[in-house]
Amino acid sequence: MTIVRQIVDTTEGQIKNARTLVRRSWLVSLGAAGMAVDTTESTFNKFVRRGEKVAQATRKDLKKLNTRFRREQRELQHDVQEAEQNIEQRLTDVVSAFNIPTRRDLRVLDARIAQLNTQLHDLNAGETTTVEFPIHNYATLTAEEINAVLPSLHLQDLYAVELYEAANAKRVTVLREVERQFADRLSENGEIREPFIGYDVLRAEEVVAKLEGLGLAGLHHVKLYESTHAKRVTVQREVERRIEAVRSANVVG
Fold this sequence. Notes:
single chain; 75% helix
């Protein structure tokens, strides 16, 4: 029995040791696997952080490149515009030196000649009213070309131009020049003449009452005089209203 017992004890001890060895081996495997996971995750996180730094640096470089590109583009456009202006100015200087009329000069001259021919025709016919529009080929002229012709027009012709422009292109530069020409025609010694005798002593309501029946010429006269003297809002508003009504009722085609 003693020998048998020793054998049993020895066998149980070996089994126990074997179980312990197996468990430790299993734990070692788990530990190794855990370390591998930790290492992989750590490496992955490092790659992510590095990638973020690279992306941030790339965005900064792209932003700098875009800013530089826009600056150089603006500088190039400025250089091109300056070169075009220099070339245009040189051509103008050459043309002026040889007294060669420009396209604008020819168009303005053509309009003036046509306008003078119309006036001569009216004089020969003993008429005082012009049946044709005062500026030849008006619709084809630029605002600058029209403004160059305006000083040669009579007062009534200016009204015709204003009516047509206000009803069609509505170019501010033309309408302002027409207004300036009105002022020149209605001025004496640099001052706008009174629209009618005793104007300055009239109250606003009395001036408004006298507007009834005035044509475009009279209304413009009141407008210019009022804007440089009393500047009464009620008068100015009523004059503007009546001018617009005349424009709407007398569209020049």
